[in-house]
Amino acid sequence: MDAVDALRGFSGGPEAVSTLFILDGEDKLIGMVPLASIVLVEQDTPLKTLISEPLVTCRMDAKEREVAELFDKYNLLMLPVVDEKGVVHGVITADDVIGLLREML
To answer: Mind giving me the DSSP string for 31-72?
Structure first.
């Protein structure tokens, strides 16, 4: 399955698709590429050259405060949740964090 097929099969709304995750052969997260970067570059540009730095992730056992601090520090729209091997198990969105903060008020 290529990236276009994966995007078409995505169950979230279009607003949730802002970043593509780049995985190695063992499903370990090696980078993230903003979708806008893909749209704006020459067709033969390797994805590897578009990877955003730094790669910011959180572990599955991360505390809510830690997650909120990462969003604030790095001005994130989404944060991949990885296990100890770096395999992605989910994504926390800015909307998730805003909802959490509203509950805390």
So the answer is: EEEEHHHHHHS-TT--GGGG--SS---EETT--HHHHHHHHH
